[in-house]
Amino acid sequence: MSEATGGLELRETPGGVELWVQVTPRAGKSEVTGVERGALRVRLAAPPVEGAANRALVDLLSKLLGLPARRVRLVAGERSRRKRVLLEGLQPSELRARLAASAAGVAPPLDLNAS
């Protein structure tokens, strides 16, 4: 089942929820900056060398969403800036709530309705 939630495209799977992530490596710092064309937009300080940016993405999402890193899996786009990530054990509503909670302290707030 696929659903577009506030501009963020989510796909519910038997194992959890999948989302697209648009990554910009070699940024000044690692952070989520919004939603772009259905994907969570993420800037990573790590370079795209030998999987460093992929590991940094897993670490960032793990901390941001309060999940163990083993439950954040890259399922597509290992060598691309556009990646599909599986968040094991989460439902779309839980993901939306955790993203909203993490964005609550950020100024300006993360706009999940942007596309």
Automatic annotation (TrEMBL):
InterPro entries: DUF167 (IPR003746), YggU-like_sf (IPR036591)
Gene3D superfamilies: YggU-like
Recorded superkingdom: Bacteria
Annotated SUPFAM superfamilies: YggU-like (SSF69786)
Family matches, as Pfam families: DUF167
GO cellular component terms, semicolon-separated: cytoplasm
Similarity comment text for this entry: Belongs to the UPF0235 family.
Record protein name field: UPF0235 protein NET02_03655
